[in-house]
Amino acid sequence: MRDSQNVFHLAIPCKDLDETYDFYVTKLGCKLARRYADRITLDFFGDQVVCHLDPDGVDMNPKMYPRHFGVTFREKAQYDNLVKLAYQRNVPFFQEPMTRFTGRIEEHLTFFLIDPSNNLLEFKYYHDERMMY
């Protein structure tokens, strides 16, 4: 089981550090932890995302499944606030907000953003928090 003091770590490729910084820090509001010539490290909603400069590692045809990452919010207000922020700051959507599994216990709200290096980010809110895992 995860200790709440520990931080999940994810490394992803990026094609340009300045574009990546603009997307994650300026538009999404993530905190920049460190920046080097070949990568930036971010506080991504409480976890660590490292964007490594690797233009050859960029997926030119991204698909939602199976490769994406993101956050499942416990509070609907947090989900709603991020949707609003994304629209206000013209963050590019890969999939507009929608409801999945309507009428089932695992029904949830979701949307996908796409970063400048074609990494897909999913954000969700489950009506029944028991379905988060």
Automatic annotation (TrEMBL):
Bilayer-crossing regions: none
SUPFAM superfamilies linked: Glyoxalase/Bleomycin resistance protein/Dihydroxybiphenyl dioxygenase
InterPro entries: Glyas_Bleomycin-R_OHBP_Dase (IPR029068), Glyas_Fos-R_dOase_dom (IPR004360), VOC_core (IPR037523)
Residues in VOC domain copies: 6-126
Highest taxon of source: Bacteria
PANTHER family, per database record: PTHR39434, VOC DOMAIN-CONTAINING PROTEIN
Protein name per the record: Glyoxalase
Provenance organism: Ferroacidibacillus organovorans
